[in-house]
Design goal:
Layout lengths: L16 E4 L6 H19 L4 E6 L5 H14 L3 E7 L2 H10 L4 E5 L8 E8 L2 E2 L3 H12 L9 E3 L3 H9 L11 E5 L6 H10 L3 E4 L22 H10 L3 E5 L6 E5 L4 E2 L1 H15 L4 E5 L4 H9 L3 E5 L3 H11 L3 E3 L5 E3 L9 H15 L3 H7 L4 E2 L3 E4 L2 H17 L3 E3 L4 E5 L2 E7 L5 E8 L2 H17 L7
Parallel strand pairs: 2-3, 2-4, 3-7, 8-9, 8-10, 13-14, 13-15
Antiparallel strand pairs: 1-5, 4-5, 5-6, 10-11, 11-12, 15-16, 17-22, 18-22, 19-20, 20-21, 21-22
Helix pairs in contact: 1-2, 1-4, 5-6, 8-9
């Protein structure tokens, strides 16, 4: 009988398992995750089922991998080690090798002291109640028993080939591209991919280094794109790409160094996809601009606003057979000629192929997009036991006042001049707010209205 195990209460999150090394997460947790998830795989696919395991470039990831594999094999699950690389490569391996499950060891875009696990069961995301059940299995000590085997199988070359094939021909319209993987797990793959692509490519920070010596690898933060913008200007690039720590989120700047935020990237990609997939659904999360949903409808697609969260988006895509989706954090999902998961490198190549074929610069396309004004994503502390109650209070008050409220994920209030949003984070003790309007005066009015509603619930919106 294997001893029961209790995880730190903060690490079993909605979409993944994540904690601070040496404080809330360590080898014992990795061992218990392996045992608990192996038990679930046994239930789903039987003894001898295979699970792919990959890891990112953080210092502790190889140690966590060893403990995780020990836990998995103790349950009778066979492990396929794919080595270091980005999270989308792990997703790819599950499809490419037809395994029953996959686990990626990664701290994603979090600071260097973090690490964790992203999980797949079959070809679906493993999240929410699934992750909570791992805690229940571990606490009861009800682990399956067996003796699994371990094999090494690199899929890096096959993955790079699939990515490169997303740009099938070259018209010479895209000449030079800058890439910044941010010393994250996609660095080596970016180098391997760009060798296979047409045009000229300028790489920086492609050496995998989990201390992130140059800047934090989160392209959703404007300051982290400074090096990329400089490289685009200095090298005369047509555009530039930035990746997050595990390569599933994308940042983009045009040839003038202007940032295209993820909802704008999605609007451009929708033009390409809907050329041949008219009438199909495109999904954006509740933080996306109204301009995105309007553009999808204009292009002949079916726009759907959905909940924030990469696992929730992937699940909804499969349910609705959507061809494209994205969220403001930078996750972009292709089910058109791809597998329906979030992959920054794949999205980048599809964008390059579109620009090259159309002969338009990204800067010109940027100028053609609606120019609205908006706040950045505003995150502010709210007690865990209070955050959802605040959102419920806002919803009930606003509906009683006759406001136009979308409550699919938090409250999104639409007015003739724009919209504002407040939602509770599923992973932290914070509220998240955003607003968008036709001009600065309207934005100020919307933000003031949002602040007034929050004040009624005892919460102050930061300046």
């Amino acid at each position: 009988m294997v001893a029961a195990y209790r995880f730190h209460p903060t690490i079993l999150r909605e979409y993944d398992i994540r904690g601070v090394i040496g404080k809330t997460l360590g080898e014992a947790d990795a061992l218990a995750v392996g045992r608990a998830f192996g038990t679930v795989i046994r239930e789903e696919a039987g003894a001898g089922a295979r699970c792919c395991v990959g890891y990112d470039g953080r210092r502790e990831s190889p140690v966590l991998e060893e403990a995780l594999i020990a836990g998995l094999t103790e349950t009778g699950i066979d492990v396929v080690r794919i080595g270091v690389g980005p999270t989308p490569m792990l997703y790819f391996s599950v499809y490419h090798l037809s395994t029953a499950a996959g686990i990626m060891i990664t701290g994603s875009h979090n600071p260097k002291e973090y690490n964790g696990f992203k999980l797949m069961l079959g070809r679906r995301s493993f999240f929410g109640a699934d992750i909570a059940r791992l805690g229940e299995i571990a606490a009861a000590g009800e682990f399956a028993r067996g003796k699994g085997r371990v094999q090494q199988n690199s899929v890096a070359d096959a993955y790079a080939e699939v990515l490169a094939n997303a740009w099938p021909g070259y018209s010479g319209n895209v000449r030079k591209v800058a890439w910044d993987p941010g010393n994250g797990a996609a660095g080596e793959l970016t180098r391997a991919l760009t060798r296979r692509l047409p045009a000229s490519h300028v790489l920086m920070n492609e050496t995998i280094d989990g201390t992130f010596p140059n800047h934090h690898p989160d392209p959703a933060v404007e300051a982290n794109l400074a090096q990329l913008r400089e490289a685009v200007a200095e090298n005369g690039c047509d555009l530039g790409f930035a990746l997050d720590g595990d390569g599933d989120r994308l940042g983009v700047v045009d040839g003038q160094g202007r940032i295209l935020w993820p909802d704008q990237i999605l609007a451009v990609l929708a033009r390409e996809v809907l050329e041949t997939k008219s009438g199909r659904m495109v999904i954006g999360d509740v933080k996306c601009s109204q301009a995105l949903f309007d553009e999808v409808a204009r292009l002949g697609g079916v726009p759907l606003m959905w909940k924030t969260g990469h696992a929730l988006i992937k699940t909804k895509m499969a349910e609705e057979r959507a061809v494209l989706a994205g969220e403001m954090s930078g996750h972009i999902f292709f089910a058109d000629r791809y597998f329906g998961y979030d992959d920054a490198l794949y999205a980048a190549v599809r964008l390059l192929a579109y620009l090259d074929r159309k002969g338009e610069s990204l800067a010109d396309i940027f100028d053609s997009l609606p120019q609205l004004v908006n706040t950045p994503e505003i995150r502010f502390a709210c007690a865990e036991e209070r955050k959802f109650a605040v959102v419920d209070e806002l919803r009930d008050r606003l509906k009683a006042e006759g406001a136009d409220v979308n409550d699919i994920d938090g409250v999104r209030v639409t007015t003739p001049d724009g919209w504002w949003l407040v939602r509770a984070s599923n992973t932290q003790a914070v509220l998240v707010a955003r607003a968008e309007a036709v001009d600065d005066d309207a934005l100020a009015a919307l933000t003031a209205a949002m602040a007034a509603q929050l004040k009624k619930s005892g919460v102050a919106l930061p300046e």
